[in-house]
Specification:
- The complex is a heterodimer.
- Chain A is an alpha/beta fold.
- Chain A has 25 helices and eight strands.
- A four-stranded parallel beta sheet of chain A has the order 2-1-3-4, sandwiched between helices. A four-stranded parallel beta sheet of chain A has the order 6-5-7-8.
- The relative contact order of chain A is 0.10.
- Chain B folds into two domains: 267 residues, 3-Layer(bba) Sandwich (FAD/NAD(P)-binding domain); 141 residues, Rossmann fold (3-Layer(aba) Sandwich), CATH 3.40.50.
- Chain B is 26% helix and 20% strand.
- Classes of the chains: A alpha/beta, B alpha/beta.
- At the A-B interface, helix 2, helix 3, helix 17 and helix 18 of A face helix 6, strand 14, strand 15, strand 16 and strand 17 of B.
- Chain A: Keywords: 4Fe-4S, Iron, Iron-sulfur, Metal-binding, Repeat.
Chain lengths: 476, 447
């Protein structure tokens, strides 16, 4: 139990006596006729009235919206959430199509001084718009469905990664993509790895450390499985260094791109699988760890806001960002003291993804990097990178996306670093696209620091030869 | 493992940021962290830094603004936060602010209040003001053109001009309402106007495509009738406000100033950016978007043996708990500063039975009967406006027996009671003065 006496909720009468003022009888007895009554029936379906009522229209959310700042077509988060809800109370009002211009960066959530669940309202409104107002045969619907379900396509590409990479890189493919689907030809498609993380994990024979007391279930998400397995391997090496048993449960997409495209049913199916598998891992004594900031955001915040599977809340409450977990459960700073990394990581421009920011993690990476000798990591400011997952891939959003990103590109240019650092896969695409820098994940830096320079620890052993460094459990 | 620092400031508004900067200044080697939940209310505020505009307890609507706030501080009631920290501390805090703000703020040349025109056409007595408003001060007798825009109904320029003249401003004021070039929608955000001007985006005008700054000046120019200064609503840039003003001023051949607006306010936003940049330069670590929800005190073991009968030990906070979507993250520090705001910022809460400070449950004096919390005259002397924790001279919150609630907790800003910042126009000054004192003592306390 804590020492803090939790004060009672606003508006809920309690038995606690007043701590202030002169003593005496309960002055409220005379005023029973003013007790609040419930004027609206209990909601049976998703009802956004409580959120709409909490909004006092200060417009703080609007001033945080990166899209409204550059796009004259977008009326801002206050409209998309509370005002749209009120408008919908009138008959014959459909969800306004402008909701599709929201990039789902979720900055409005942490902006609101009144705890209005803005992104939840946007997700709900977007789903309703897609369901009721967007033709299922339209190019936009097909394109969005495809982008949202990237995970369904990725396995095909990764079966023939080299062919896929060549085909996707062809200008004719990109031209076709733009003309037929509305996917911008300005961007390079991310390359598929020749070996997925899960393939590597299986070849490796799974976990190298067994530990009943320290167990994590790794939610790698799609991108670090198909595109950047080096990030996922770094996580495994870092956690094994600290003596954790790593489990890699079955998993689907986190749902982030589906939320952003209003494909709520697709997201529900994916979430159901994830909640079931992750809950089973928690039952086995694991905490859930994600390396992608949008994956952790989705499981921690969007699942409980939008779904009510059994264990949704348990999974949300036991899911952590990979670095955050180590900071709280291990002496990470102590372990990093007197470590150093190679020239590859000496000078870095760090961008905090919006979805890290919303979890209160935007300052974390720089704090952790400070402990490592020889690293000079600069925060390139609090602007949004502008890509927001699938948003910046759409032909009609490309220009807005690059306008939003302009501030970050400028700050990256001003910083001395020539390497970028971030935890979000699509932010890293945008950083690379705007500056040409190579972009690393924080876990890759930790792996390099904790693994030493290789010479001291000897070469890696067993099947674990592809990592540039060895894990400490192997070298200890 | 708890995340460990030397000083932990809870709250990211003017008081919290000042406390963190002051702590870092007082203890150079100490590690300072600021935890803030929702975004600060700075962007709700005008960006003006007032100390004392009107004498408290005077609800006469004809009362004159205070000319010299520093002499007036001496006569405040003993319970006022300014009296708790003393006049010298108020001066030191302002000097500290001046150093942080650099040339972004004006007003340090005098003790006297400046009179800055507001978007309603009233004048506000204030000690410091954003440099963007400087050419507009009401003590300056140059004739003034105020420019409003159809799509920004919060600023009705002709009405504001008439109001200024009626209030006895020593100059002729005239207002015009124009259409803002490059803004299409009726509800464009203030950040959209600012971005357009910051980046000097290309906009369509009747005479072809030009930069947004030039287009705006060209829109205003025909309406200028010999006035040597022009006031705009405060939307003249976010990142490059000085360049925007200079470009407009050069083209118009008149000085350009901003009129502070209601929320969301760009001058407030710029102040917030300025302060957070200062935190970064000072090496203060900032954790934002997450609430502090709980705390634990240091276990009291056999220490009781030393205390004399009847004298209870003052508890010390061991750590606080930050909630991240259900995950409980302990944060440990040697000294803590509570700067969570007042009734608006939710550092003070009320329900139908009582008024509380929700985090540490510090004592907040108030009447038992809630019908005594307010008076019927809306602009009268409202008791609720003075609700807040009661500090000692070290700014430690006191319990109902006048003993400190905790040995290592200080409070700053609107969470303190005993003053009505809206009526007195003292909100920024109290936050600066108490933030400065609480932060300095916290910094000294951890050495």
């Amino acid at each position: 139990m804590s020492d803090a006496q939790r004060p009672i909720d606003d508006g809920v009468p309690s038995e606690q006596p007043s701590t202030g003022g002169a003593g005496g009888g309960d002055g409220d007895d005379d005023n029973d006729e003013f007790e609040p009554v419930q004027v609206f029936p209990e909601a049976e379906e998703m009802d956004l009235r409580p959120g709409a009522d909490s909004c006092y229209k200060c417009s703080t959310c609007d001033t945080n919206c990166p899209v409204a700042e550059v796009d004259d077509e977008f009326p801002g988060p206050k409209f998309q959430g509370p005002e749209q809800w009120r408008l919908k109370r009138q008959d014959d009002h459909d969800i306004d199509e402008s909701v599709m211009k929201c990039s789902n960066c979720m900055r409005c959530d942490s902006a609101c001084p009144s705890s209005v669940p803005l992104s939840q309202m946007h997700n709900t409104a977007r789903a309703e718009y897609v369901e009721e107002n967007m033709s299922k045969l339209s190019r936009e619907y097909l394109r969005n469905r495809m982008l949202a379900n990237y995970r369904r396509l990725a396995p095909l590409a990764s079966m023939f990664p080299r062919t896929a990479n060549v085909v996707m890189g062809l200008s004719v493919t990109k031209w076709l993509g733009e003309k037929t689907l509305g996917i911008t030809s300005e961007r390079e498609f991310p390359e598929f790895a020749t070996e997925t993380f899960r393939e590597w994990w299986t070849d490796r024979g799974g976990a190298k450390v067994e530990n009943e007391d320290k167990r994590i279930a790794y939610f790698h998400g799609c991108y670090s499985n198909y595109n950047t397995p080096e990030v996922a391997k770094a996580l495994v090496h870092v956690y094994e260094h600290f003596g954790y048993e790593v489990m890699v449960p079955e998993q689907s997409c986190s749902g982030t791109p589906m939320f952003a495209n209003g494909m709520l049913e697709d997201a529900r199916r994916a979430a159901e699988t994830n909640v079931r598998e992750l809950a089973a891992a928690i039952e086995d004594g694991a905490d859930v760890i994600a390396s992608c900031s949008s994956c952790s955001m989705s499981i921690r915040q969007e699942y409980p806001e939008l779904f009510d599977f059994e264990d949704t809340e348990t999974v949300a409450a036991n899911t952590w960002d990979a670095v955050e977990y180590l900071r709280v459960h291990e002496d990470l700073t102590g372990a990093l003291e007197n470590t150093a990394v190679g020239d590859e990581f000496d000078d870095m421009a760090y961008h905090a993804p919006c979805h890290s920011r919303n979890q209160g993690l935007d300052g974390q990476t720089i704090e952790v990097m400070d402990a490592i000798d020889g690293i000079d990591a600069h925060d390139v400011g609090d602007s949004c990178s502008g890509i927001s997952g699938t948003y910046g891939w759409k032909e009609e959003n490309y220009e807005t996306s690059m306008k939003i990103g302009e501030e970050m590109f400028e700050h990256m240019d001003e910083a001395e670093a020539e390497t970028g650092l971030t935890e979000c896969p699509t932010c890293s695409m945008q950083m690379e696209h705007g500056t040409g820098y190579e972009i690393k994940h924080t876990l890759e830096v930790l792996e390099a620091a904790l693994g030493g320079d290789g010479a001291e620890n000897g070469a890696g052993s067993g099947s674990d030869t592809d990592a540039g460094t060895t894990t400490a459990t192997e070298s200890i | 493992m708890a995340i460990t620092d030397d000083v932990l400031v809870i709250g990211g508004g003017l008081a919290g940021v000042t406390a963190a900067l002051a702590a870092s200044d007082a203890a150079e080697d100490a590690r300072i962290r600021l935890v803030t939940y929702r975004q600060s209310t700075l962007r709700h505020a005008s960006g003006l830094i007032d100390v004392l505009g009107y004498a408290p307890g005077n609800t006469d609507d004809q009362q004159q603004p205070i000319a010299d706030p520093f002499t007036a501080l001496e006569s405040l009631p003993e319970s006022h936060p300014y009296q708790r920290v003393g006049v010298d501390a108020v001066r030191e805090a302002l000097a500290f602010f001046d150093e942080v703000a650099g040339d972004a703020y004006a007003g340090a040349h005098t003790d006297r209040n400046a009179l800055v025109p507001t978007h309603g056409g009233t004048v506000k007595p204030t000690a410091r003001y954003p440099v963007s408003t400087a050419e507009g001060v009401a003590s300056d007798d140059r004739d003034t053109l105020l420019v409003g825009f159809e799509t920004l109904p919060d600023f009705d320029a002709p009405l504001a001009a008439a109001h200024l003249e009626a209030a006895g401003a020593p100059f002729d004021a005239r207002g015009v309402t124009l259409s803002f070039p490059g803004i299409g929608r009726d509800d464009a955000k203030v950040t959209r106007y600012a971005h357009l001007l910051d980046h000097d985006e290309r906009v369509e005008t009747l005479t072809g495509e030009t930069g947004a700054r030039e287009a705006l000046a060209a829109t205003v120019n025909p309406h200028l009738d010999g006035e040597s200064r022009v006031g705009f609503p405060a939307i003249l840039g976010d990142d490059h406000p000085a360049a925007v003003r200079e470009a407009l001023s050069d083209t118009l051949g008149a000085d350009v100033f901003e009129v502070p607006m209601g929320p969301p306010s760009l001058p407030g936003l710029r102040l917030e950016e300025l302060l957070y940049d200062a935190l970064e330069s000072a090496g203060v670590r900032v954790t934002s978007g997450v609430p502090v929800v709980d705390y634990e005190t240091v276990a009291v073991d056999s220490m009781g043996a030393n205390s004399t009968a009847g004298e209870s030990e003052t508890a010390a906070i061991d750590h606080v708990v930050v909630d991240r979507n259900g995950a409980q993250i302990p944060h440990e520090a040697d000294q803590y500063v509570l700067a969570t705001g007042g009734l608006v910022g939710k550092g003070i809460e009320s329900n139908r039975k009582r008024v509380t400070e929700p985090l540490f449950d510090c004592y907040v004096p108030h009447a038992t009967d809630r019908y005594d919390w307010f008076v019927d005259d809306v602009f009268g002397e409202q008791p609720y406006a003075r609700f807040g924790v009661v500090p000692d001279e070290d700014l430690r919150p006191l319990n109902s027996d006048d003993d400190p609630e905790f040995s290592n907790l200080r409070a700053a800003g609107a969470v303190l009671g005993g003053y009505d910042y809206a009526a007195e126009k003292s909100g920024a000054g109290v936050s600066l003065a108490t933030g400065y004192v609480a932060g300095t003592r916290a910094g000294e306390g951890c050495q």
